Structure formats: C-alpha cells, structure tokens
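note to self: dont lose this again. the chain is below, predicted strucutre after it. 295 aa total, dont forget to put it in the shared folder this time
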Amino acid sequence: MQIVTNKYKREMKEHGNDQFPFLISYERLSKYESGSFLWHWHPEIELTLIDKGEMIYTVNDHVYHLQEGEALFGNVSSLHSGNKYNNKDCEYISITFDPKLIYGYDNSIIYRKYVEPILQNLSLSAVHFDLSEEWHKEIITILNDIITIGQRKEAFFELDILMRLQKLWKILYSHNNSTPSMSAFDKRNYDRIHSILSYIDCNYAMKLTLEDIAEHIHLCKSECCRLFKRYMKVSLFEFILQYRIEKSLNYLINTENSIVEIANLVGFNDSNYYSKVFTKIKGCSPTRYRKKSLS
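---
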C-alpha cells in the first residue's frame, strides 16, 4: 500500500470525523510497498511516536533521525515523508487531530494567543522530542497517556484526550513561541515546491522536461533545479526517477502487466533503463521484486 493523495499531494485519509477530528493509527514502514511513505501533507497536526526501531523522517527541508521512544510534532500543511533507517523496519504510532480541538472556534482568544502563532509559523514545521530536555519527557508521557486512553475508550475518553492535547499544546507553546517566522521568500519557495510536486504527480507518466517544470513555476531552468535541490535534498531528476519507480510498484504487485508495459505506464520509454534504475533504487530487478511480493 501507499498513502493516497490528491493531485496536490494532500492526503485523502480521514483523520477522525466532524464530531471528533482525532485519530490514533498504529503503523509500520514495512506495510508500504517501498518500505517508506511518500511526500504528502494534510491540514491536521500530526504527532508521531516511535514504538520500535528507527526512522528517517523528513519535514520540508529538515531531516530527523527518530529513535525508539522519541516523537515528532508535525505542523499543519507541512510536506513530510518517512524512510527506514539502515533498511530496518520501524513501528510507530501516529496521532492526528484538527487544531480546532485546541482552540474551539475561529478568532477565539485561545486561537489568537496560543494557536495561531504556532500554526502560522512556517519555520516551525516540526519539533523533534529527542528527550534531550525535561519538557520532551513530559510530551512523551502525555502521548503515551493519550494512546492508552484511545485504546480503552472508557467513559469520558474524548474529554480525557482533549485535556491532554491542551496540556501538550501549552508545553509546546511555552517552549516555541519565540521561534522566528519564515520569511516571505521561503514561503514563496515552499509554495513553488508544492506546485512542482503537484505537476510531477499529474504528469509523471508522460515526458517530463525541466523546461516544462520551470515554466510551470515561472523560474528559469537553473534556478528551478537549485530551488528543488535546496529544499528537497535531492536533484529534481533523481526525484522524478524515484517517484516513477514508486508508482510502478502497484503495477508490479497488483497487475499482470509486462515489465515493458509498466515502464511505459510510469514514464519510462525504455524498459531496460527502467529495470536499471529500479535495481539501483530497490536493490533487485522489477521481475525479482514482483516474485518476492507475490510469494
């Protein structure tokens, strides 16, 4: 499986419901076809607690090495992806919630004083709770309490979860309310990255040229390449190859299409080149990957 997103890379999964927009998910990287979850974003806060193993978690242009017992706060609308560390599996618990659970209604004093400064600070895309400070331990304790409450679902469990989310937010705000905001320059560049990812997602099966992508975001080709490499830590060309390979996994596992057909479906006009790139990225040929997945 893989995270389902729309053409703008927004995750389509429901995180709770309108009555209580809150969800606890028990996850592991090995359940994804590629052993990683791809770039996506959503309008909810996400708190990730590592239960077993380690993960390389990337949020916007920051890379975090999350270890067992550590956690990460992911702000609303931040682009994020997760990968195995040393090719070993990682089990983690994801807590997602609409920040309205904290502030109640738009323009409330809670929103304006304590929530908006965090949500609107694009420099604060993530916070790594690596246990290096005492308040990190408080956060981890609260997360474990929330998980236990969510498992038991005893009387008043929604109120108990809400109380702990607000306590967590108070601690988070008190230690991060002076973080400088992102510049207008960086904001514009992140919007461009979102636009590039959307363009690739819509057009990966066709011929993609640097000229087309650069024109799409109204930059010259060289500046487009520099921008992407700066924020995504990988070249645009490499990202497109990786993205096409990831998209091919579903065809390998869930269809009987030939390797030649699959290569064409994901934008490779040469099946030999597709196999070469696949082997480099996945460590085995497409045929071998298909056999392993179906055995």
